Task: structure prediction
Amino acid sequence: MSPVMEGYNFAYLDEATKRMLRRAILKAVAIPGHQIPFGAREMPLPYGWGTGGIQVTAAILGPSDTLKVIDQGADDTTNAVSIRRFFTRVAGVATTERTSEATIIQTRHRIPEQALREDQVIVYQVPQPEPLSRLEPRRAETKRLHSLADYGLMHVRLYEDIARYGHIAKAYDYPVMVNGRYLMAPSPIPAFDNPKMDRMPALQLFGAGREKRIYAVPPYTEVKSLDFEDHPFRPIRAPHACALCGSRESYLDEVITDDRGGRLFVCSDTDYCSGRVALREAAE
Amino acid sequence: MSVLTPGFADPVLDAQAIFRAVLEAMSRPGRIQRAGAGLQPPAPMMPSAAAVLLTLADSGTTLWQDAGEDAAAWLRFHCGAPFADAPGEAAFVLATGAPPSVAALNAGTEEEPERGATLIVQVAALEEGAGWRLTGPGIEREHRLAVTGLPPDFVAAWARNRARFPRGVDVILCAGERLAALPRTVAIAEG
Result:
């Protein structure tokens, strides 16, 4: 573990920036699913590497927290490792790879398989917070559509998928309605993870650094994936068992093993998978 | 003027701890959090209300308060927040006496509801497990909260505040070293 660096404020950001972030986070919790602009700071890593999530984490993090960071479900990929090291160096907090031991989980594009608890907070890194961005590029206009709760554009977009492909062809960043009022981008998590957001006991916070937006879903809040009566939402999962732990419930990554078409499917959530493997080995 | 009492002993970590308490209170309306132990703000300001303002108010937020000259001096020194002339112009409103009507405060706009004010109300007592029945986001089934010392028309005014969602005012109730929050989404039914 790297030592805490001298010369930086706790958790890197200055106190005025933290207060600005904290005010935005509180209003985000009070208005579930509504995007709140904030003054995103330049961070010591580029936009697109989770600067929004890092700023939210820095604003809430305290010395008694245990931080877990995942990137596509994995604790050991570059983004996750560097963010975890960043916070051990600027805040000296404990880190973990175990979902159950963490009090704050910062994530890029997955929700852990293990159900989260009331005493945990999950922070999502968000590249594009505006669910209507591909349909209406003007910010002023999307703000107006949100204020009017006019989400017809998104329904037409999903309907066009059904007309063209026979099903809704959106496998990630699948739009959701929060508390029956705001259309929200769940960040590029697989649609498979969407049902986990609904009435989750943990607080969910979202930070988009480049787009300078914060939003939130309070605990036990209804999060509904958009769908149609005759085309209900279906979470998509590769129809295989994990090659390592044998799970038929978890979300799988496809891994190419050679250049002759060899491939295998493994859990994307490394902590869930290694936990199951360890259990099986202990039983043998 | 009396002697200025100190703010947070550790401005960084104390503010973080109080923020997490307020975040928890706002995320789970009706659950009581502890805040402000050790603070001695000038009367009639309570430790929890003072802690919330030390944590959230600064030169970027307007503040209105009815706590008198000593409290004004304390807040001016520790928070540096500019004072608003009327409650309706402030981002944070501290009510130590009879709170201004929720309808009179800034509720934000349909496009920018986050501009709605935060009303910090000092009350005589907060108790979980009895009184109001709260439902809404952050609450699994129902949280109960008994509040002593609010004006009798508060619940009716709150229903009107909630009806204009997403516009609205969020409330932080403070009693001594305890606080609870009412985000604009929460529904209050009387016991």
